[in-house]
């Protein structure tokens, strides 16, 4: 078990299997020293536990936990192409999409779930630039989707 996976275990989390793509793409791609993930949904065991819009059917607190799950899935996607999460030098960028009710404006707080998990798992290497974007709808009616870009050592 890697040091990052040990930190995750200390949080009561285990790295899941990489989520199967929903369309014609791969979960992550490495180019040079960077790994880019596809958008990761809050799938657990291949299924969404919650659907709907944040601020309507889904509370901001629930959505924050779902963003955490998305980040965990993104780490699994990174590991699938580099083999060892201890190779992550830093998380460069996080983009979070929040399926939002028309009057919901708390997207940054929702995406904090992903950012906080990355910080807990990777320490200083988890500090990143970020965008939190409200959208009308996401695949499978997911409330949240997160993608990450990381720099890795050779």
Kindly summarize this structure in a few lines.
By secondary structure, the protein is an alpha+beta fold.
Describe this structure in words.
With about 150 residues, the protein is of the alpha+beta class. It is about 30% helix and about 25% strand. The protein has helices at about 5-10, 60-80, 105-120, and strands at about 30, 35, 45, 45-50, 90-100, 130-135, 145-150. The protein has a five-stranded mixed sheet, covered by helices on one side. Helix 2 packs across helix 3 (about 105-120). The chain is globular and about 45 Å long. It starts with a helix and ends with a strand. The model has no long low-confidence stretch (mean pLDDT about 95).
Structural class category: alpha+beta
Termini, distance in Å? Answer: 19 Å
Number of strands: 7
Rg, nearest Å = 14 Å
Calculate the mean pLDDT score and round it: 97
Low-confidence stretches are: none
Q: Using the alpha-carbon principal axes, give the shape.
A: globular
What is the helix fraction of residues, given as a range? 25-40%
Question: Major sheet: size, sense and barrel closure?
Answer: 5 strands, mixed
- Strand order in the sheet with the most strands: 1-2-7-5-6
Order of helices and strands: HEEEEHEHEE
Count of alpha/pi helices:
3
Bin the strand percentage: 25-35%
